[in-house]
């Protein structure tokens, strides 16, 4: 390993979720962590938790995932993790906007909120990260200059009765990810998309679904954020002769 410290930037972190689990998993590989999220207080608590476990983590709260917010938060990230001591080598866009309503109940404001967080945010995030990757040295083990993954969901590939605001945004982000994979593969930048086809066991989803019975104990019926993080680390470490663009993950008993 070179003396330059690698940094993972994660957008979209929530207690017990994929963002935090991925951050912890990359920290074990020697990465410093830049954590972007809304909700400054919760984010600070997650920063403290990761630091208490011996990791180098910094919280970067944002008011929204608009392109303006993303561009200004990256200024702060560069100030905290300056080149050449640090290099952003991995990035996860996990911010999402969950909205399930019948089409005729969806307002233009709902539509724009989903578009902003999911499509505009991921576009702006990639525009910050990819120029940095292009300047990175190629890693000798993986053959890559950088790795960026976008977290999608079932609605990234399938519409349903209440997904007319969420699905257009999620399909849009998936299309962005595929376009970038093709354009930047030749620069040895690995772009991936994950379809998370099931509900993740987090405090947030447990309260949203009113603590479904057996949920915590039964790993057959929901996903663990730590197991998703393992898959993300696996993708990040794939050697350049066999890269995955898209991976789908679902619990064993998911009806799909
Ligand atoms: C991270 O991605 C998962 C899977 O799509 C999603 O359920 C979760 O809400 C996202 N986290 C945030 C903070 O948006
Ligand atoms: C699609 O919507 C129906 C009705 O709300 C629901 O029962 C079903 O589980 C949904 N399918 C998926 C794949 O989310």
From TrEMBL:
PANTHER family found in the cross-reference section: OXIDOREDUCTASE, SHORT CHAIN DEHYDROGENASE/REDUCTASE FAMILY (AFU_ORTHOLOGUE AFUA_5G14000), OXIDOREDUCTASE, SHORT CHAIN DEHYDROGENASE_REDUCTASE FAMILY (AFU_ORTHOLOGUE AFUA_5G14000)
Native organism taxonomy: Eukaryota, Fungi, Dikarya, Basidiomycota, Agaricomycotina
Name the record gives this protein: NAD(P)-binding protein
Organism: Lentinula lateritia
Gene3D superfamilies: NAD(P)-binding Rossmann-like Domain
Pfam families in UniProt: adh_short_C2 (PF13561)
InterPro entries: NAD(P)-bd_dom_sf, SDR_fam
């Amino acid at each position: 390993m070179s003396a330059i410290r690698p940094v993972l930037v994660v957008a979209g972190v929530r207690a017990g979720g994929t963002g935090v689990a991925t951050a912890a998993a990359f920290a074990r590989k020697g990465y410093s962590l830049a954590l972007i999220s809304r909700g400054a207080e919760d984010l600070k608590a997650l920063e403290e938790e990761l630091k208490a476990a011996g990791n180098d983590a910094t919280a970067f709260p944002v008011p929204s995932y608009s392109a303006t917010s993303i561009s200004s938060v990256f200024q702060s990230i560069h100030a905290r993790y300056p080149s050449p001591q640090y290099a952003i080598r991995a990035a996860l866009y996990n911010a999402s906007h969950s909205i399930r309503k019948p089409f005729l109940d969806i307002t233009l404001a709902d539509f724009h909120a989903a578009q902003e967080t999911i499509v505009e945010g991921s576009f702006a995030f990639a525009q910050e990260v990819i120029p940095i990757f292009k300047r990175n040295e190629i890693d000798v083990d993986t053959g890559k200059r950088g790795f960026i993954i976008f977290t999608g969901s079932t609605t990234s590939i399938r519409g349903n009765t209440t997904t007319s605001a969420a699905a257009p945004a999620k399909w849009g982000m998936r299309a962005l990810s595929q376009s970038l994979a093709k354009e930047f593969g030749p620069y040895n930048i690995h772009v991936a998309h994950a379809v998370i086809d099931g509900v993740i066991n987090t405090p947030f989803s447990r309260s949203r679904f009113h603590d479904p019975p057996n949920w915590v104990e039964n790993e057959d019926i929901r996903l663990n954020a730590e197991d998703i993080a393992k898959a993300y680390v696996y993708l990040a470490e794939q050697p350049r002769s066999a890269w995955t663009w898209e991976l789908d993950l679902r619990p064993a008993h998911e009806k799909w």
